[in-house]
Amino acid sequence: MLNIINVRQLKTNKQNKYHLKLCTIILSFICICIIPHNVQATEESISSENIMKSQQEALNINSFIQEADKYTQDVYEDLDMGELFTSAISGNIDNETIINSIIRAIRRRGF
Amino acid sequence: MASILVIIVIHSILKSISEGLENKGIAQITYYVQYILIVTLMMTNFVQVLDIIKESIQNLVGFMNSLIPILITLMITTGSIVSANLIQPIILFVITFIGNFITGIIIPLVLISTSLGIVSKISDKVQIDKLSKFFKSSVVWVLGVVLTLFVGLVSIEGSLSSSVDGITAKTAKAAVSSFIPVVGKILGDAVDTVIGCSSILKNATGIVGIVIIIGIVVLPIVKLAVLMGIYYLGSALCQPIADSKIVSLLDQMGDTFKTFLAIMCSVSVMFIIGVTLVIKISNSGMMYR
Question: Above 0.90 for ipTM, yes or no?
Answer without folding.
Answer: no
